[in-house]
Design goal:
Elements lengths: L6 E5 L4 H12 L3 E6 L2 H13 L4 E5 L5 H15 L4 E4 L14 H29 L2 E6 L12 H21 L4 E8 L8 H4 L4 H15 L8 H12 L10 E4 L6 H10 L4
Parallel strand pairs: 1-2, 1-4, 2-3, 4-5, 5-6, 6-7
Helix pairs in contact: 1-2, 1-8, 3-4, 4-5
């Protein structure tokens, strides 16, 4: 059991990647606080974890609200006594190109997708420092480093998560707190629902197949479980000498490091 006796907070744990990470951790012996705005969904994930023989707690939280975040962390400590692992997975699509973006859209998108990560880290880190141990996993997006369409505020927020990861990894290394980032490519989750709204399931699958053929070298959309595996690696002692890492889980899509290497090998492109 890679996470026996560990305690994790997973934001966005009601569905999609957050749910897959929560149940993956439970399968390795971890107690999980499932945090989400969707309380009924969080309770379903928590119930599944309990059915696996692990402890779980569902907490409704708006991560862009510091008072709610602090209350959530206090509740987790009161229930489990510690926090070993934090997964910042909560977020939401929003925004459009520069011509159609508004200040209000920008602020709302940043609040959920970047400020929320900061607030949860700020509330959790003191407990990790006290224990002289912690694992923080932030979830970004391939759109932050290799956009295929313009979703300006969302992609900028996700780019901020990469920077947050690198800075916290540097700052917290002496406290034995590891901070790493997963950059998912296209993952088949409810994220795509606005784009496929009203589509029959057959047409939705055709859309996914077209995206995969055009954008993904492996030729398929990712699944939430494809993200849960790397999240387990970063949460466990398998990554005991890894911090400040940006892992692209994108079916072969090029990230910044790959792109830079390719450019240096091919100066005339």
């Amino acid at each position: 059991m890679l996470l026996a006796d560990r305690v994790a907070i997973v934001t966005g744990g009601a569905s999609g990647m957050g749910r897959a990470i929560s149940t993956k951790y439970a399968g390795e012996g971890c107690s999980v606080a499932v945090v989400d705005m969707n309380l009924s969904g969080a309770r379903k994930t928590a119930a599944e974890i309990k059915s696996m023989g692990c402890k779980s707690l569902a907490i409704q939280t708006d991560i862009s609200n510091s008072a709610e975040v602090n209350k959530m962390v206090d509740q987790t400590i009161k229930t489990f006594g510690k926090i070993d692992i934090l997964v910042n997975c909560a977020g939401g699509a929003g925004g459009t190109n520069i011509d159609n973006s508004t200040e209000d859209d920008w602020d709302k998108t940043m609040a959920v997708n970047l400020k929320g990560h900061f607030l949860v880290c700020k509330a959790v880190v003191p407990h990790m420092k006290k224990a002289h141990y912690g694992k923080i996993i932030n979830i970004s997006s391939m759109g932050a480093v290799h956009p295929s369409i313009s979703v300006l505020s969302y992609h900028c927020a996700k780019g901020g998560i990469v920077s947050l990861t690198l800075n916290l990894a540097f700052e917290l290394a002496t406290d034995n707190i590891y901070v790493n980032c997963i950059v998912p490519g296209p993952i088949a989750t409810a994220f795509w629902d606005p784009l496929s709204k009203g589509m029959p399931e057959r047409d939705k699958q055709a859309l996914f197949a077209a995206i995969a053929k055009k954008e993904i070298p492996l030729g398929r959309m990712g699944t939430p479980e494809d993200i849960a595996g790397p999240a387990l690696f970063f949460a466990s002692e398998l990554s005991s000498y890894v911090t400040g890492d940006i892992m692209y889980v994108a079916g072969g899509q090029p990230g910044l490091a790959k792109e830079a290497t390719f450019m240096s090998m091919n100066p005339i492109r």
